[in-house]
Design goal:
By secondary structure, the chain is of the alpha+beta class. Helices cover about 25% and strands about 30% of the residues. The chain is built from 5 helices and 9 strands; from the N terminus they run αββββαββαααβββ. Strands 1, 2, 3, 4, 5, 6, 7, 8 and 9 form a 9-stranded antiparallel β-sheet that branches.
Length: about 220
């Protein structure tokens, strides 16, 4: 099988990113971009992000998860701690997050270190989830081999009966991570592939070094 994609072309012309106009803290620029994409580009799932980890097999692996909260400290998402990504993070907490918002022609790449959030925070978020999502966390031994889809559906049906009218507690193997950034790069598509790239790097005094990169 072969397909030549060399003629695929797209012109980027929806915005610009100027070094003299960016804030000193990248989280402020992240918040601005996130709000603008959420407001003006409804076709994008704004909080969908790619999480990249280095697996136990030595290979990097990317997968899309949903950002559930961001603060000046970092970016929070939830998952099964015993999943492939959870095991990878336990072995090597250095991860990369990336957002690509095609409607706005923007990308953000975040290098950081992941750590588990406080258990009460994971409890609070778990309690806020729909019952189906809560049961889903109990059903799925994430990343494990299963015989077929019916296995999951049968297990879900059994749990629905077991927990009918009862509170569902967060399993200890499920919870949140916060990724504390050490480097954030903002990319704005521009014409003729002369894209704008602004990189923030965290310094020892917790200030941010800001540079423009060549496209």
């Amino acid at each position: 099988m072969e397909k030549d994609l060399s003629n695929y072309r797209k012109s980027y012309d929806k915005g610009e990113l100027l070094l003299e106009e960016v804030p000193e803290n990248p989280l402020e620029l992240f918040q601005k971009w996130f709000h603008e994409v959420d407001l003006h580009f409804a076709e994008d799932e704004t909080n969908a992000m790619t999480v990249s980890t280095l697996g136990l097999d030595g290979f990097p692996k990317n997968r899309v998860v949903l950002l559930k909260r961001y603060t000046y400290e970092g970016f929070i998402f939830y998952t099964n701690y015993e999943s492939e990504k959870g095991k990878a993070i336990a072995a090597n907490p250095n991860v990369c997050l990336s957002f690509f918002w095609h409607g706005a022609e923007r990308q953000i790449i975040i290098k950081g270190r992941a750590e588990k959030i406080a258990e009460n925070m994971s409890d609070g978020y778990f309690e806020s989830r729909p019952v189906g999502s809560q049961l889903g966390a109990l059903v799925s031994s994430q990343s494990e081999v299963i015989p077929n889809r019916e296995y999951l559906e049968t297990k879900l049906s059994e749990l629905e009966k077991e927990y009918e009218g009862k509170p569902i507690l967060r399993p200890k193997y499920w919870g949140g991570y916060i990724v504390k950034p050490v480097e954030i790069e903002f990319w704005q598509g521009r014409p003729n592939r002369l894209h704008d790239r602004i990189r923030y790097q965290l310094q020892e005094d917790y200030s941010w070094l800001i540079n423009r990169l060549s496209s």
